[in-house]
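FAQ

Q: What does a record look like?
A: Structure on top, sequence underneath. For example:
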């Protein structure tokens, strides 16, 4: 990552260079609207006029190296063959002072700027880091003609998805309670769907009669259906317990760093440090 001087003077040198690779093949000469060389190729201006807020050379072990640049509104990858930029993400809202920081883990580049949602990319597609929980639950009613015994049960739903070969699950929605009488089944309607392109399905969790532990009751393998009928006996519920805090979207980080396969992140103006599980 390359940080500009503050205040920035066009044509001036960079104040600091972090995580960049230099060689005799060339070097960057200007921050905004520059034409220089990185990895031996010309680097043109990015396709927006506000200026560059970050530059990173990625060295994945499973593909050729590539260059990522960030602006005020977008994230771009340089196409080495054509010398043009491919847009990876849009809708960013940072300023020239919101410098991007970069890190690489498992051949994925992670980008943060302390202002917008954390991103990660394989150089082809960019996704938000984590999946937001459903903001609301669903409606649940007891209907006749089932096998569920009498008692009060609660339901909750999570979003699930896969990005870059990694399976993810959100934190749960608010729970909803329903009272069953003998030989009922649960009718679930209004099951939330997600606008996040990472989401490919939902998991439905339920407690046993009078119980407090949510266990997997059903899985919907799409992001469109909004109704399902639950007729699982308490004894037939899966052994998978619902996590209530370990998933979801991490805070908006201003700094990230990888050490021995663990990602560390810190938000702006905070002394707290967050870290991932090893390799995740």
């Amino acid at each position: 990552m390359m940080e500009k001087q503050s205040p920035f003077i066009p044509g001036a040198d960079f104040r600091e260079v972090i995580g960049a690779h230099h060689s005799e093949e060339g070097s960057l000469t200007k921050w905004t609207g520059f034409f220089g060389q990185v990895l031996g190729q010309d680097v043109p201006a990015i396709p927006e006029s506000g200026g560059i807020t970050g530059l990173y050379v990625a060295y994945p072990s499973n593909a050729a190296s590539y260059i990522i640049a960030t602006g005020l509104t977008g994230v771009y990858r340089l196409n080495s063959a054509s010398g043009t930029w491919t847009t990876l993400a849009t809708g960013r809202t940072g300023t020239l002072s919101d410098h991007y920081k970069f890190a690489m883990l498992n051949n994925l580049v992670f980008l943060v700027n302390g202002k917008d949602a954390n991103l990660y990319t394989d150089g082809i597609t960019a996704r938000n880091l984590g999946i937001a929980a459903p903001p609301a639950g669903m409606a649940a009613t007891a209907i006749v003609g089932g096998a569920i015994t009498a008692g009060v049960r609660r339901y909750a739903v999570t979003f699930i998805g896969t990005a870059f070969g990694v399976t993810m699950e959100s934190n749960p929605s608010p729970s909803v309670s329903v009272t069953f009488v003998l030989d009922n089944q649960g009718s679930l309607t209004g099951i939330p769907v997600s606008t996040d392109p990472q989401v490919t399905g939902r998991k439905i969790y339920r407690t046993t009669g009078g119980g407090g532990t949510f266990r997997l009751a059903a899985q919907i393998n799409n992001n469109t259906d909004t109704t399902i009928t639950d007729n699982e006996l308490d004894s037939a519920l899966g052994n998978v317990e619902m996590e209530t805090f370990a998933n979801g979207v991490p805070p908006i980080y201003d700094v990230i760093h990888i050490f021995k396969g663990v990602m560390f992140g810190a938000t702006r103006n905070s002394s707290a440090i967050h870290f991932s599980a090893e390799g995740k």
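Q: Is there anything notable about this one?
A: Confidence is low (pLDDT under 50) at residues 1-35.
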